[in-house]
Design brief:
Layout: E1 3-5, H1 16-23, E2 27-30, H2 45-57, E3 62-66, H3 78-98, E4 102-105, H4 115-132, E5 139-143, H5 156-166, E6 171-176, H6 177-183, H7 190-203, E7 209-213, E8 216-217, E9 228-229, H8 239-247, E10 253-255, H9 263-273
Parallel strand pairs: 1-10, 2-3, 3-4, 4-5, 5-6, 6-7, 7-10
Antiparallel strand pairs: 8-9
Helix pairs in contact: 3-4, 4-5
Length: about 280
C-alpha cells in the first residue's frame, strides 16, 4: 500500500519507527535535521547503526526526507543561495548515510527576479549539488507548490523546466494534492483528478513521480493558500484520494497533517477503507 505520515524524530532519528509501528504504516517521511536551522551536525555512526537496526526489525519499506523549509535555491541573495546549496548537499549526504531513497524539496521563490531567472538558478544549483554528491543515488524530488506569491513550482510546466535543465536521473517529483488544488488544478472529481494526473504525466512523466503528499485543503480552488486539512474535511473531498489510493499502490503516499487527537490514525483509516 505504501501509505504513511510524516513521523517525528524527537529524541532520536530511530524514534520515528515507534510512531510507524503504532500506526502500522509501511512508509514515512521525516526531517533528518532541525528544519528551522541552517547548521546541522553530521549523522553519527551510532545514529546510523540504531536507525539501520530498527528499520530492519520493522515492516517499513520506503523512507524519505523533507528538506528544510529554509532552503531557497532560486534566491537572488547570494548568502542565502550558498547556505541553501550547502544545506541541500548535506541533506543528500545524510539521506545517503541513512539509506533513504530521496529527499523532497520545495523549489523556492523568485523574489524580485523573473520566474525563469529563478528556475535557471534552481536548476544550476541542483546540478551543483548532484555533482558534489555524484557517488550517491539519492534523488531530489521537487514538490509542486500552491503558487503563492513568487513561489516557483505552482505549475507542472515550472517543474518540467527545472527537470529538463538539470538533466539527471537523480531529479524527480512529489505531488501534493493540497498544493495542486490551491494552485488551480481542480481535482475534486474523478474526471478532474484523471485529467490533472494525465497532464502531469504528459508534462513531467508519472515515471518520475517519487511520492504523493495526500492532504485536503482549507483553501478554495486557486486560493494559493498552503493550508492542509484532514482527509475529507476540506475543500477537495474524498474522490481524488480514492483514485490515488487505488491506482498508485507502488508510490509512497504520506499524509502531512497535525496528529493531535488521534487524527493521524483517523486519516489513515479513511484512506485504507478506500482500497478494501
Amino acid at each position: 500500500m505504501l501509505l504513511g505520515i510524516h513521523c517525528s524524530v524527537a529524541g532520536g532519528l530511530e524514534n520515528a519507527f515507534s510512531e510507524a509501528a503504532r500506526l502500522n504504516i509501511d512508509t514515512f517521511q521525516l526531517f533528518t535535521r532541525n528544519q528551522r536551522q541552517w547548521k546541522a551536525r553530521p549523522v553519527s555512526k551510532e545514529e546510523k547503526r540504531k536507525f539501520s537496526f530498527v528499520w530492519k526489525q520493522s515492516k517499513v519499506k520506503t523512507i524519505f526526507s523533507h528538506c528544510s523549509y529554509l532552503l531557497n535555491p532560486g534566491s537572488a541573495n547570494q548568502v542565502i543561495l550558498e547556505k541553501t546549496l550547502q544545506a541541500l548537499t548535506e541533506e543528500v549526504i545524510r539521506c545517503t548515510e541513512l539509506k533513504l531513497s530521496f529527499c523532497v524539496m520545495h523549489p523556492g521563490t523568485a523574489g524580485t527576479q523573473s520566474k525563469e531567472e529563478a528556475m535557471l538558478k534552481i536548476a544550476a544549483g541542483i546540478k551543483q549539488v548532484l555533482q558534489a554528491t555524484h557517488k550517491s543515488k539519492v534523488i531530489i524530488a521537487l514538490e509542486n507548490t500552491a503558487a503563492q506569491g513568487s513561489s516557483v513550482g505552482g505549475t507542472f510546466e515550472n517543474l518540467k523546466f527545472i527537470y529538463e535543465n538539470v538533466g539527471s536521473s537523480r531529479i524527480g517529483f512529489c505531488f501534493d494534492t493540497c498544493h495542486a488544488f490551491a494552485a488551480g488544478y481542480d481535482i475534486r472529481t474523478q474526471a478532474g483528478i484523471e485529467e490533472t494526473l494525465g497532464s502531469f504525466d504528459k508534462i513531467c512523466g508519472l515515471k518520475n513521480l517519487n511520492a504523493f503528499h495526500l492532504n485536503d485543503s482549507k483553501g478554495e480552488l486557486r486560493s494559493h493558500l498552503d493550508r492542509h486539512e484532514h482527509i475529507g474535511k476540506g475543500k477537495i473531498g474524498l474522490v481524488p484520494f480514492k483514485y490515488i489510493m487505488k491506482n498508485f499502490p507502488h508510490i509512497p503516499k504520506v499524509i502531512e497533517n497535525k496528529t493531535e487527537d488521534g487524527w493521524d490514525m483517523k486519516n489513515l483509516k479513511t484512506l485504507r477503507k478506500m482500497v478494501k
